[in-house]
Amino acid sequence: xxxxxxxxxxxxxxxxxxxKIAGALVATFAALxxxxxxxxxxxxADGTHNVARGWLLMLALVAVLxxxxxxxxxxxxxxxxxxxxxxxxxxxxxxxxPVGYIFVCFPLLVLAMAKLSFRYSKLxxxxxxxxxxxxxxxxCLLGSFAGFFAQPPRLSAMAYTSVADLVLWMASxxxxxxxxxxxxxxxxxxxIVPTSDR
Length: 198
Description:
Elements (H helix, E strand, L loop, with lengths): L1 H4 L5 H33 L4 H20 L1 H4 L5 H11 L11 H18 L10 H21 L7 H35 L8
Helix pairs in contact: 2-3, 5-6, 6-7, 6-8, 7-8
C-alpha cells in the first residue's frame, strides 16, 4: 500500500511545488494584512491624507488581485472554509444573543461559499466571467467581515455572503447547462442511424 502514497515526482518538481504553495500562503496573508490596513486607514482616519492613502492601497490591491485570479482561484475556497470552521463555535452564542441568527447563519453561508467556489480550483483556464465572479465573491467575503465582527454583529454580514452564494450558484448552473449542451451536441450526430435504400 505504500506505493499509493509515494510521490513519483522528481525532487526538483517537489521542491518547486512546495515553494509555490509557500509563496501562495505568504501572498495570501500579505494581501489580507494590506486589505485590513487599508480598511483601518479608511474607517479610522483622522484626516483626508489617510483616507486617500487607504483608498489608493485598496485600489492597488484590487488591481493586483484581478490580474492574478488564475493563481489564487486554486486556493480561494480555503479562505471561506477556514472562516466557516472558525465561526462554527460562535453558533453557541446564538442562544444568548439578541442577534443570534447572525451567529448561526453566517458560518453556514460562508461554508456554502467554500463549496460553491471549490470548482474554480480545478479549472485549467480562467475566463473573463470567472475572474468577475471570483472578484465579486472575494469582495463580498471581505465586506461581510466588517458586519460580522462589528459590535453588535450587523445584518450586512449575511447580506454580503448571500450575494456571493447567489452569484456562485448561478454561475454553477450556467456552466452545468453549457456542459449538457456540449454533451448533447456530441451525442446527437452519433445517434443518427443511416438507413439503407431499398
